[in-house]
């Protein structure tokens, strides 16, 4: 269907709210007759959004399969609307009677957000704005929109909150409201929100949230306390769906958790999020699916089920933004494959409309730092371009309102939450703030659309300028609050900020990277003066870093692995100091017994820094370590997602006593980016993979790896295998029109173009199908 561009002034509908709140989940309905005398209906579209979240129906049929729309944006400046093609639904309207129905829930707008227990940060009233536009054969347009004539009434949902869960009373179910001629007894009117500013309405940039797949229980059993427990075998994000029949008025209560402790649900990591759904039975055949909440869980505890719980009675529904999988990785080491699956599930659990830190506890916020380090991994595994452009639009909006300061979370709800006395005033911090630069740069590299840089440029440059204003006279960013190498494994559980790496070293290194990337963006965008300004800042920062933090023997101040990882990976050091620093890093890595010694800042870069300075074997040993703390430790403990802490679950099976104990945090999974590029051998040669760099570096006892990526120009596949004699055979598939620069560890180098190519141990390229070597 052709979709006409919508402008603020083209909306005739008004934002309406029910006169009664109806337990936070009101229904809104309206009946209309199709205009006669204009010939056949040609097309019909519905645009809809809400203060809260909504589901829309036309004559009893849902208009689409999205859930939790319009998701969460910086509602002060951006309220997205969905646009649905409803031609068939309207055409099928009996006797030309159209019944529009909208069901609302609290969602992010009015539900709980953050760990302080507060709610309703964006407003106290739910509301809806919807407009049905029908085009007839003679060109006549009929518009039916929300206005003061709509009716509001109660739904079957009697409680709903994203963190706490949902209660559905099936005795209240009655679909009659979705049909014509409904009596609407007990219903009320609505009022128009005159204060609503339609200029904030904006179409979706990224995808909506949808149900993705169903996961069946792998085990149902009774806990030591006699509770019925269900294991879905996978830590996931979504909700349960089930059919049941039982005594009218009886209640089934379902609690969710990611882990078990002492054989019972381990709910302490959820902190204050109740993650509890309740279902009150009608006495007939009931189906329940709580779509106004979501939970991060692998286990569910079911209380009050009538009789025995049959294994096929429940499914877990996996819910997240509708992203397309693009990258795959598999190798000869099953532990690494499980780690990679955990990274994929960690991503899937944290892309429910907003890229979040975690999906289960009283947080689920768009923490900027987590994405800053994970964006490259995400952009390989899934097509996240539109999803993250949407998020960057929120980040930029927040930043504009805060004088260039990048919020810790986007959308920034923390600005509404009163901080305890004595708490620092929020200021841009390294890594978290650098998301403003690193994320658009990552999207540019992954997808090659320069628009992402032009859209984000003001935000990128505002961030760097703001940081520039915070520097000490030395030129170092050693002032103010920093998260630094957050969650260093040696930090005490209650002090995740207490890292070995000096926060000034971390921050100054990050500034260098951000200034350099912003200078590059400026020159791509033909902003010569800015390119000079940020280029000069980058050079001054690099010089200050060397002067104050680096010794001639390659020692970097505070001598922690993270400071070497950043200095090397971000290009702050010249030879021969760089090599000495790499050697020192390798010595520290070996000295820590190849156990992880880095937190949020260093972990994504430590394997790269080792690789760049000739310590590939050490990078592999670090990656393949199974003792705690390490990437594979969680795999040995049966993890199915990446954890927030290396030891979120302690070796004895108990849960880490710290407050930050999520079992589904993607940040530390950023090592998958190294796996894709260095083990797998696929990296962009030019932005958007217009050329591909194919440089696998086998090691760690792996005998084969297969990595593939659906790039914008097409599918790239790299498969390597070590022969019996240790020689390396590589198969490379390159899309038409793309050149791959193949660079193998034994010095073989080839440029090949579109087609499939095999490089055997002995000879050079032989063409297998299409294309040819250059
Ligand atoms: C979040 C992190 C976040 C951090 C910063 C935590 O509560 O879960 O992932 O980046 O706070 O302080």
Give a description of the structure.
The protein is globular, with a radius of gyration of 28 Å. The chain is built from 15 helices and 37 strands. Strand 32 (714-722) and strand 33 (728-734) form a beta hairpin. Strands 6, 12, 13, 16, 17, 18, 19, 22, 23, 24 and 25 form an eleven-stranded mixed β-sheet that branches. 24% of the residues lie in helices and 27% in strands. Helix 12 (603-612) runs antiparallel to helix 13 (616-624) and helix 12 (603-612) packs parallel to helix 15. The chain is an alpha+beta fold and 774 residues long. The model is unreliable at 764-774 (pLDDT under 50). The two termini are 45 Å apart. The site of beta-D-glucopyranose (BGC) has 10 residues, from helix 4. The site of beta-D-glucopyranose has 10 residues, from helix 4.
Low-pLDDT regions: 764-774
Q: How many H/I helical runs? A: 15
Query: In percent, how helical is the residue content?
Result: 10-25%
Strand content: 25-35%
Task: List the defining traits of the structure above.
single chain, 774 residues, alpha+beta, 6-stranded antiparallel sheet, 15 helices, disordered C terminus, binds beta-D-glucopyranose
């Amino acid at each position: 269907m052709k979709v006409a561009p919508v402008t603020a002034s083209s909306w005739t509908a008004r934002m309406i709210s029910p006169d009664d709140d109806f337990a936070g989940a009101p229904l809104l309905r309206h009946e209309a007759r199709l205009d006669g005398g204009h010939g056949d209906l040609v097309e019909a579209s519905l645009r809809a959004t809400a203060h809260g979240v909504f589901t829309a129906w036309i004559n009893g049929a849902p208009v689409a399969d999205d859930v939790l729309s319009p998701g969460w944006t910086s509602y002060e400046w951006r309220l997205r609307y969905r646009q649905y093609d409803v031609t068939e639904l309207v055409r099928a309207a009996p006797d030309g009677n159209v019944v529009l129905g909208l069901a609302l829930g609290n969602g992010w707008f009015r539900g709980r957000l953050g760990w302080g227990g507060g709610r309703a940060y964006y407003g106290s009233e739910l509301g809806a704005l919807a407009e049905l536009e029908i085009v007839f054969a003679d060109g006549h347009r009929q518009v039916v929109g929300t206005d003061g004539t709509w009716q509001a009434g109660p739904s079957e949902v009697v409680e709903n909150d994203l963190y706490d869960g949902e209660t559905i009373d099936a005795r209240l179910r009655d679909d009659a409201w979705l049909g014509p001629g409904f009596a609407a007894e007990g219903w009320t009117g609505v009022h128009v929100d005159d204060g609503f500013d339609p200029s904030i309405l904006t179409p979706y940039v990224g995808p909506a949230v949808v149900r993705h797949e169903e996961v069946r229980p792998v085990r149902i059993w009774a806990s030591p306390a006699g509770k019925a427990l269900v294991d879905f075998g996978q830590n996931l994000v979504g909700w349960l769906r089930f059919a049941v029949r039982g005594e009218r008025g009886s209640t089934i209560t379902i609690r969710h958790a990611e882990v078990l402790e002492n054989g019972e649900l381990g709910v302490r990591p959820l902190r204050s999020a109740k993650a509890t759904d309740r279902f009150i039975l009608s006495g007939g055949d009931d189906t329940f699916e709580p779509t106004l909440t979501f939970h991060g869980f692998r286990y569910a505890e079911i209380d009050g089920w009538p009789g025995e719980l049959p294994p096929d009675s429940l499914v877990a529904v996996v819910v997240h933004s509708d992203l397309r999988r693009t990258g795959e990785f598999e190798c000869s080491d099953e532990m690494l494959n499980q780690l990679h699956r955990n990274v994929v599930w960690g991503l899937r659990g944290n892309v429910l409309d907003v890229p979040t830190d975690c999906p289960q506890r009283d947080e689920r916020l768009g923490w900027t730092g987590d994405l800053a380090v994970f964006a490259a991994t995400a952009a390989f595994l899934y097509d996240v371009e539109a999803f993250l452009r949407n998020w960057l639009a929120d980040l930029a909006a927040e930043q504009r309102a805060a004088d260039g300061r990048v919020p810790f979370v986007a959308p920034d709800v923390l600005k509404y939450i009163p901080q305890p006395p004595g708490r620092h005033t929020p200021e841009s911090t390294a890594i978290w703030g650098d998301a403003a630069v690193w994320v658009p740069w990552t999207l540019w590299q992954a997808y090659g659309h320069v628009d992402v840089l032009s859209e984000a440029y003001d935000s990128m440059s505002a961030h760097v300028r703001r940081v520039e204003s915070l520097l000490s006279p030395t030129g170092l960013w050693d002032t103010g609050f920093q998260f630094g190498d957050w969650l260093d494994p040696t930090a005490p559980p209650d002090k995740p900020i207490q890292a070995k790496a000096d926060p000034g070293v971390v921050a100054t290194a990050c500034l260098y990277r951000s200034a350099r990337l912003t200078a590059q963006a400026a020159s791509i965008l033909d902003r010569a003066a800015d390119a000079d300004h940020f280029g000069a800042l980058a050079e001054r920062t690099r010089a200050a870093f060397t002067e104050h933090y680096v010794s001639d023997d390659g020692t970097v101040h505070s001598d922690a692995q993270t400071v070497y990882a950043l200095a090397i990976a971000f290009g702050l050091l010249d030879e021969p100091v760089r090599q000495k620093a790499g050697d020192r890093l390798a010595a520290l890595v070996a000295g820590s017994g190849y156990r992880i010694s880095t937190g949020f800042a260093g972990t994504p870069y430590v394997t790269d820094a080792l690789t760049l300075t000739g310590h590939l074997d050490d990078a592999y040993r670090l990656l393949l370590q199974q003792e705690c703390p390490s990437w594979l430790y969680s795999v040995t403990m049966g993890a199915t997602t990446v954890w927030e802490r290396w030891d979120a679950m302690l070796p004895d099976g108990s849960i880490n006593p710290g407050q930050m104990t999520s079992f589904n945090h993607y940040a530390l999974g950023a090592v998958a980016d190294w796996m894709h590029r260095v083990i797998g051998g696929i990296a962009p040669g030019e932005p958007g993979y217009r050329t591909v760099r194919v440089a696998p570096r086998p090691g760690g006892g792996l005998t084969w790896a297969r990595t593939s990526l659906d790039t914008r120009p097409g599918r790239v596949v790299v498969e390597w295998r070590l022969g019996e004699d240790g020689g390396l055979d590589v198969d490379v598939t390159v899309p038409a029109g793309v050149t791959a620069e193949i660079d193998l560890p034994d010095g073989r180098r080839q440029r090949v173009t579109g087609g499939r190519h095999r490089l055997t141990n002995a000879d050079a390229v032989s063409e297998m199908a299409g294309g040819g070597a250059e």
